[in-house]
Write a structure and sequence with these properties.
Length: 90
């Protein structure tokens, strides 16, 4: 079967993460994209549900706080979950 070159643009970090995942699964990017496209054709649509998650306002605020803390160089860091728990006990 003849193949044709295809070019896509994706976020650099997303490409790095997905390439690592595919490598762990024994796939390369081309094989993974081909698998995805074949599933789309087979199902006559996307092979998964596309939906917006419904989070409570409290969860959204917690996620925004976590994102902010992850970018704050002065935020306290822990080497392990155990260390964080010990700090809570003090």
């Amino acid at each position: 079967m003849a193949t044709t070159p295809t070019q896509i643009r994706i976020d650099e970090q997303l490409k790095k993460q997905s390439t690592e995942l595919f490598n762990n699964l024994g796939l390369d990017m081309s094989g993974a994209v081909t698998m995805f496209l074949k599933q789309c054709v087979l199902r006559n649509g996307l092979p998964f549900a596309v939906e917006m998650p419904r989070y409570s306002d409290e969860v959204i605020m917690a996620m925004e706080e976590a994102k902010s803390l992850s970018k704050d160089p002065s935020a306290k860091r822990y080497k392990s979950f155990h260390d964080a728990l010990e700090d809570l006990d003090d």
